[in-house]
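Tokens as discussed.
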């Protein structure tokens, strides 16, 4: 029928059986082959026989099965007393009939077997190992039911008792001496404490006579030494496995290398840059601030700290210890006392302003203090390429310096300088111009205001007299964040890897432009502050101490030749860098025994984005002359461009998706999309044409702000597109086809409004200029692009928003003055269609300039009003 399991404690069985109330498990049967006759699955039903009747409310919550090797989660789906079989689909008809028959036998024989038998249905048939069935008080309890003996409330069994076997199913009797059993090896052991415990357990088995556990014992010492070695090896294995995948790597160097395999360049941030202006005394005329060289840094500037304006070495170190940020000049600068404050010339006019978008100005060239026959601005000291900083020095309303708008400060790099005179006023002036990239982003007031009696901030500010609102500063130097240090590196070993680590950080990352230069002297002032972190390299130079040979930093050694003295600085999260050299295949390996000296800069990221007026000290080793000569040091504009290193989490997200960003251009749409990545391009259209001997891709560009596609811009954009260009295809950048419009509408003016004022408002709304509040005129160049039609409904809706407009005439009839067409062309049913269509390379244009009607005309015929 099944296996009968009897507890080994026969004496206790007899005591429980004779007890009046105590109950316990007598034996357990597994229904195997007999289960088929009852319509049940084999080895899924257990009969648990107890000594006394079971409680009537016993169910599956009072039974648990534990144990097993392969199948450990054997659950109980049903449990009931045999005389209380439920009449539902969980039991079969044959099974219920069997239980009813046994119940009749109990009544005839006067026994209680069905009341003493618990039927248990399991969720699986288990494996060949031993399981334990236990009766519990409840679902969450671990104690046996009330009036149940603890040892006899559980029983061991196996589901496979009826499986064929060559051996006796009964356990062997007697107590034969067991052989030595090795302690189980826990393969989850990974740390020192677990390894120590495992070794001690092993020794307890193989050398039971050794019981010493004192840490001073030699045996314990050896155990702990091996546990330490195993712990270290385990950590090493885990670390290698962790760093092997982008999703789990923790070290920044590992993540950077994984990203490189995905062609994703992980950046280490970039340092900030700022414009610093100096004012010097006449005694410092012609003095020079040094620029950076291969062996020395540029002039050192420091943010505001307590101390003199010009710091010596001791004061500099104290400032650094106090948390001051250090900046260094990117180029040399010759100082001139007359360049600290340059006045604008307004040709005798009052209430003048430099408008927004201005790219030229006139400066007053006053006589020199040293020689009245000479001027402070000369072709020798004031030439194209010099940087001017235009700023509002005092409020145009109150005349106070403290009320000046700090946002009205702007740096420009001069592209044209012309020395001339104002013949009417008989004064020397200088006409200067700068590029469109440096166009003035705001309106700058140039008139003079009265200085209030209580606001004279500087000696040259006469109380109660006129002083200029805005001035230009000429002694301007570009500085960037970072302090230069020098450090000897360990000698190169004869064998093994050479991976020295810098002792200080964070390592400065400097943007390198064309030719590897940190500063392009021909670029605009705005471009000098644009420092993409993807183009940065570490500010680090290595030299062989004896020979003086230089080693150059690179982002990767994959393009390095076997004789290239190049290296990679791999920066970790703490900002410190470890240097990696070549292997004489990809990059040269330093010779054994060669001493190296590292010159590098520390200071990086957003910490260098200091505010305006934060830089106010200069470090000089020239002594008291400099301290007396420097009158002021300041950065009128905040430092910009400081970017923190790209986080490991961001790389994990972006690197796997980087291949979706296309880095080549093949089709016309590709060239258009790539060209629009340029910051000066609003829209672009590509056109592939056969030009006689090869294909040429013409990229037609709509520049932002309506600026022309001139030769200079075309050269810059061509250089930008070069790395995307398909080999064998020529590339040409050309201008769009502007379509001038001729529009005239009749407008009815509401009562109470002056028709002239309403017309002026309409002309302003439909202009090409920027409106107050950041709005654009309807025909602003950035509002229209390639193929974009001009809708009549948009014109009417815009006009109706102007106060004083009652209605707009849209009827096109003979004798009506309305026009809605291309300029200089006959109408083509534009009124009827309600739009002026544009072709693929055409852009609508309406400048409404009477001097250039070919750029579009606009007129309004006013009716009604005052």
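Sequence:
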């Amino acid at each position: 029928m099944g296996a009968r399991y009897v507890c080994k404690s026969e004496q206790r069985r007899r005591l429980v059986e004779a007890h009046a109330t105590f109950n316990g498990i007598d034996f357990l049967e597994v229904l195997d082959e007999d289960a088929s006759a009852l319509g049940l699955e084999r080895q899924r039903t257990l009969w648990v026989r107890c000594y006394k009747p079971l409680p009537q409310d016993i169910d599956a919550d009072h039974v648990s099965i534990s144990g097993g090797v392969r199948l450990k989660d054997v659950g109980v789906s049903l449990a009931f007393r045999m005389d209380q079989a439920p009449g539902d689909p969980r039991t079969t008809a044959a099974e219920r009939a069997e239980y009813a028959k046994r119940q009749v036998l109990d009544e005839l024989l006067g026994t209680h077997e069905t009341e003493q038998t618990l039927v248990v249905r399991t969720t699986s048939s288990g494996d060949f190992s031993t399981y334990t069935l236990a009766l519990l008080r409840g679902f969450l309890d671990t104690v046996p039911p009330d009036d149940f003996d603890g040892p006899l409330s559980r029983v061991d069994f196996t589901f496979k008792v009826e499986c064929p076997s060559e051996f006796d199913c009964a356990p062997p009797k007697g107590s034969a001496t067991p052989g030595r059993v090795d302690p189980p090896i826990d393969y989850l052991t990974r740390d020192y404490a677990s390894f120590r415990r495992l070794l001690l357990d092993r020794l307890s088995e193989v050398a039971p006579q050794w019981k010493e556990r004192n840490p001073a014992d030699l045996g314990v010492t050896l155990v702990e030494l091996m546990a330490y070695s195993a712990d270290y090896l385990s950590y090493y294995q885990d670390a290698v496995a962790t760093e092997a995948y982008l999703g789990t790597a923790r070290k920044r160097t590992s993540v950077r290398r994984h990203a490189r395999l995905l062609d994703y360049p992980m950046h280490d941030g970039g340092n900030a840059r700022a414009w610093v202006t100096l004012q010097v005394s006449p005694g410092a005329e012609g003095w020079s601030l040094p620029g950076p060289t291969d062996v020395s840094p540029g002039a050192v500037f420091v943010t505001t700290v307590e101390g003199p304006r010009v710091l010596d070495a001791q004061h500099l170190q104290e400032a650094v210890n106090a948390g001051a940020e250090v900046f260094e000049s990117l180029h040399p600068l010759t100082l001139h006392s007359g360049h600290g404050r340059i006045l604008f010339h307004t040709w005798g006019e009052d209430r003048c302003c430099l408008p927004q978008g201005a790219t030229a100005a006139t400066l007053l060239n006053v006589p020199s203090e040293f020689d009245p026959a000479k001027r402070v601005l000369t072709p020798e000291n004031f030439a194209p390429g010099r940087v001017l900083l235009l700023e509002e020095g005092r409020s145009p309303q109150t005349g106070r310096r403290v009320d000046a708008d700090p946002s009205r400060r702007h740096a420009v790099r001069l592209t044209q300088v012309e020395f001339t005179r104002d013949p009417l006023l008989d004064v020397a002036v200088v006409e200067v111009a700068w590029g469109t990239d440096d166009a003035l982003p705001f309106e700058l007031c140039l008139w003079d205001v009265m200085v209030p009696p209580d606001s004279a901030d500087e000696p040259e500010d006469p109380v109660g007299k006129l002083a200029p609102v805005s001035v230009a500063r000429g002694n301007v130097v570009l500085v960037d964040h970072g302090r230069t240090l020098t450090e000897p590196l360990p000698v190169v070993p004869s064998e093994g890897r050479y991976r020295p680590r810098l002792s200080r950080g964070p390592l400065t990352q400097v943007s390198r432009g064309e030719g590897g230069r940190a500063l392009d002297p021909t670029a605009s002032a705005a471009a000098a502050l644009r420092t993409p972190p993807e183009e940065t390299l570490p500010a680090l130079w290595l030299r062989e101490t004896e020979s003086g040979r230089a080693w150059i930093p690179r982002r990767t050694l994959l393009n390095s030749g076997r004789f290239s003295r190049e290296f990679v600085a791999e920066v970790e999260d703490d900002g410190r860098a470890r240097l990696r050299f070549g292997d004489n295949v990809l990059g040269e390996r330093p010779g054994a025994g060669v001493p190296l000296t590292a010159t590098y800069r520390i200071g990086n990221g957003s910490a260098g984005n200091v505010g305006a007026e934060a830089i106010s000290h200069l470090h000089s080793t020239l002594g008291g002359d400099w301290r007396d000569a420097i009158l002021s040091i300041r950065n009128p504009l905040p430092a910009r461009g400081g970017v923190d290193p790209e986080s490991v989490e961001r790389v994990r997200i972006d690197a796997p998706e980087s291949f979706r960003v296309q880095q080549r251009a093949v089709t016309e749409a590709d060239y258009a999309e790539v060209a629009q990545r340029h910051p000066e391009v609003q829209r672009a259209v590509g056109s592939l044409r056969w030009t006689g001997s090869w294909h040429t891709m013409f990229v037609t560009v709509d520049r932002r702000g309506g600026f022309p596609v001139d030769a200079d811009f075309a050269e810059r954009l061509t250089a930008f597109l070069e790395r995307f260009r398909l080999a064998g295809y020529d590339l040409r950048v050309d201008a769009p086809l502007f379509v001038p419009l001729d529009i005239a509408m009749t407008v009815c003016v509401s009562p109470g409004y002056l028709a002239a004022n309403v017309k002026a408002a309409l002309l302003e709304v439909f202009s090409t200029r920027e409106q107050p509040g950041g709005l654009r005129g309807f025909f602003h160049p950035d509002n229209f692009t390639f193929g974009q039609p001009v809708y009549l409904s948009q014109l009417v809706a815009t006009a109706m928003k102007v106060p004083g407009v009652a209605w707009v005439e849209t009827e096109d009839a003979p004798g009506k003055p309305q026009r809605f067409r291309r300029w200089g062309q006959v109408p083509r049913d534009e009124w009827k269609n309600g739009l002026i269509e544009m072709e693929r390379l055409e852009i609508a244009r309406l400048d409404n300039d009477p001097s250039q009607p070919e750029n579009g005309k606009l007129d309004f015929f006013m009716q009604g009003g005052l």
